[in-house]
Structure prediction request, 435 residues.
Amino acid sequence: MADAPPPAYDSVVIEQTDSADPLSSGGAADVSGAMSDGANNGSEAQASSPSAPGDMSVKVYDPVKQGEGMSAYVSYRVSTSTSLPQYKQQETEVIRRFRDFVWLKSKLEEKNPGVIIPPIPEKDVIQKYSTGKDFIERRRHALCTFCNRLCVHPILKFSTELQFFLEADEQAWQNEVAAGNADKGTVKKGFLGAKKFFKGVASTTSSLITGKSADEAEDPEYLKVKSYANALETHLVEVYAHADKLTTRQRKLFAAMKVFGETLSKLGEKEQEDGKNQEAFVKVADKLCSDDTLEAALSSLELGFVEPMKEYSRHVKCVRNVMADRSAALQRLHDKKQSVESKKNTLAKLRATPGAKEEKLSDAEQRLNESTRKLEEANDRYDLIKERMRTAMSAYHAQRKVDMLETLEGFANKQALLAEEQAKQWKNLVASLTA
Prediction:
């Protein structure tokens, strides 16, 4: 457990943007067009429903196991309904597998710096080969949530990567996957190594010019938000863990009640000399063993309560990933500034040197121009990430707050209805036993 909960977000963020207002005042279902550059964190019901409001919605359904053994995988139907003009048809349906969703998320992260890309479920090698019904349903539900978050995002819903994922036919899709795999074979190690290097540099290395880390040059208000996100992740992970424990204990309790009913039934068989006792035991046993509504209620609790809590913990990790990219972009900007200064000094020394060759002067000028161009690119990328994050964080927080309240309210209502139904059945049983 952490020592203390994170501070209230409103006490951390100085600038509240207009784009966050519709989110904090409206329901989780009414979010189409209200998000800023941050990913929409809509409610579980809205995210998993094919009838989500707006001009686009996706349904992920009909999971089917394909193949056997180590090569087995699960395919899903992905059905899209949209009124966006860039789509060829208003209704489309394709077949995709889990690694295809991974491809989509990776492409969106690559092409949209500064945008909080919604999470997808983690890879689970052990569960993959068991292909259990519960595991497949949870994954299907999470993938559906992921797609519908993209559908209500004001930037991502227009991305060509999402459009290709949702409407490309099998041949076009396989060609893209094959091309992507070929590219991975030649550049994956270098690209991933460089990415990890820059992220590590961003958090640990000091600038050679100032002697300060990149974060020390950041806006102090942003650093407060960053600290808030770090604390928030810890507490969301804890909330998910305890939500999972809560529903697991309920499932164990109901399982124990069924076993208890079975033992009562056996005991009733031994009460031959007392017909009334035998009848009472049988009634209680039947009540405990034959209530099939409990399993459906528990499954509903897991999808409507535990899975959203798990997704919230995943989502804040996506926020931290964007923050890491911002730190890396700032560190790269500092490095490019240093490079420009160094080449300026070199050129100045050459110009001050009597008899310096024109070749060397020309070469030094070209190097300076190239470094200046790279500095401008680094500055543009950092400014883009910073500008997008300016509204993304407020929007993310506002929607997460609404969603979590709705999730907790839904959980409380389901618990109350379940308790009322159980109390009603037990009262009926008591009345029949005392009649």
